[in-house]
Structure formats: structure tokens, C-alpha cells
Fold this sequence. Notes:
Radius of gyration: 41 Å
Structural class: alpha+beta
Number of helices: 5
CATH topology of the domain at 49-137 and 172-192: Immunoglobulin-like
Distance between the termini: 188 Å
Shape: extended
Number of strands: 10
Order of helices and strands: HEEEEEEEEHEEHHH
Keywords: Membrane, Transmembrane, Transmembrane helix
Helix content: 55-70%
Amino acid sequence: MKNKLNRGRENKVYIGIIITLGVLFGVFFTSKSWMYDDSAIAQTPYNESVNGLSQTTLILRSWEYNPKNQLMEVTIETVHTGTDAAEPTFTFEAKGKVSKETYQAKKVYESDNVIVVHIENVPTEYHVIGLFVTEHRDEKILKQEYKRQLKNDSDVATTESDKIKKSDLLKPKDVVVVGDYREIEVNKNLVAKSDKAYQKEAIIEDMERIKQEIAVIIDENIPFQKELVSTLTKEKTSLKSEMKYETKDEQAESKKEIENKENAISGAEDEVEQYKSKVKELKEKYENREEKLDALLHPGHQIEKENQQIKEQKQQQETNKKHEKSQKQNAKKQDKKKKEQAEKKQKKQDQKTRKKDKSSKKEDK
Length: 365
């Protein structure tokens, strides 16, 4: 009886150990999914330049993920910074950092230097994904570069364009834009949208960035420079007032300090003027975006505006024609008047001449 009880207890102990080990293994292997992740964040910074391409600087604007339909949406701005006359095109490929699995990445929208890419069938445990952006330059430009390179190389003869192989040309460059699950925004309403919707979002986001840039300049940058001018001016005045109590050597040193402060004041004042010009430029840019958004949302308004502009142009042309006609008529009147005055003047001269002739004839008699 005792042996049976002991065996039963031993079995319970073994079962408890097995269950405990199972729980510990489960916690260990799934801790990443529910515990704090202290690994380094691999996210490419938002709204900062991404270099590495030949002709283009990229700026990551947004990265969203919908776990329901396993869809990612990446918005990238492209800035053409190279010398190529024709802007390059881009292809995309997405890969998981840990799994090395490739996901379908396709461009769903492109306009005004904004590209929207969808990455499909991304599992919820993705953690880190790399979006490979490959820049494809115009083939004609690459051929011209290759020919120039051959021309500069005295050991190689010049090659005709039609004989140049693709393998001879520069290979396309690529960069990786990285998304980390801790920095990617979860959007459960994310779906593919129309071109108009993407364009609207791009314009509104651009307007918001412009507003923020204006606010930083007006609320922070300009006040800082003005405060700097005020502080330097007070310090300069203090130095000047103290100079009368200084030796010649000390005065020479103070003069140098005063000169440095005057240069710094001048530099700060120039900075303020540059900021003011920048604000003016940004406000014009913002107004242009407003007009663009209005034209997108209310195409009828744009048609009315264009019709009004055409009408105003026609009215201006008619006004110009009337003005030209009036000027010609006035010119004719002036010419006629001058002609009449010249004729009168000539008649008077003729009369005087005849009188002189008559008087001279009388004297002869």
C-alpha cells in the first residue's frame, strides 16, 4: 500500500517537473512576442535623407501595417540630386531580416516625387523588414558615360553605341530602407486606395510639413537670432563704456572683441533676413499646394478659374488693342496738327518774302 502511494507521489512530481519545463521552454521561445524587446531598433529614420543611390536622395515619409490583411504601405519621397537629364526609375523588393523570406513589393502610386509601395502577405511576426530600392538610370545616358570613359582611356578604342553591351554599363545601385515593428504604425483600416486619394494624402502631408517648417522658423529660429543680437549689442555697449578705464593694451584687446561682436551681430541680422525670405518662399509654396488640393477636390472650381483667367486675358488683350488704337489716332492727330502748323508757318514765310520782293521793286523804280 505504501509503495503504491510513493509511486503515485513520484509520478505527480515527475509530471509537475515536465509541466514546469514545458512552461519555461514556452516562455523562453515566445518571450519576444509579449515581453519587452531590448534589441537595437533597426528602423530607418523618418523624414531624413537616405543616401547611397547615384542620382537620388530618398526620404522615408511613413510606414504602416495592417495585421488583418497582412498589408504594409511605405511612402517614400524621391529628390533628384544627380546630373542626369532624365530622372531614373525604381524597382522594389522586400525581405525579412531574420527569416530571409521575400515578400511581394509593388509600386501602387507615383506622382510629384512621391512613391507609395505595398508589401503584401507580411506575417504578424515579421519583426524587421528591409525594402530594397533599386535605381535604374536611363540607358542612353549610361552609354554616353561609357563612351566618354573609353575615350579617356588611351588603351581602348571608341565603341559604337549599338555595339555596347548592357553588361558593359554601370550596374544599378540600390539602398535598403528598413522597417522595425516597434516603429511601424499599425493601421487596421489600411487598404489599397485610388490615385486621387494618394495624391490628396501626399499634398496634405506636404502642407503639414511646410506649416511645421514655418512654425519652427517663426517661433524658434528668428527669436533666437534676435535675442543673440540683443545680447551681443549689450555686451558691445558694456565693453565700450569700460574702455575709458583700461590701459592701451586692454583697449586694443577690447576693440578686437567689439569688432568680433559687431561681425557676429551682422551675421545674426543676415540670418534673420534669410529666415524671413525662407518663410515668404514657404508661404508661396503652401498657397500653391492649397490651389493644387482645391483643383484635385473641386475640379469644377479649377475649370471656372481657368475660364476666368482666359476671360481676363481676352479683356486685357481688347484693352491693349483699344489703347494701341487710341495711341495711333492720337499720333495721327499730332502729325496732322504738326503738318498744319508747318503749312501755316510756310505761308507766313511766303507772305513775308512776297512783301520784301514788292518793296524792293518799288525802291528800284
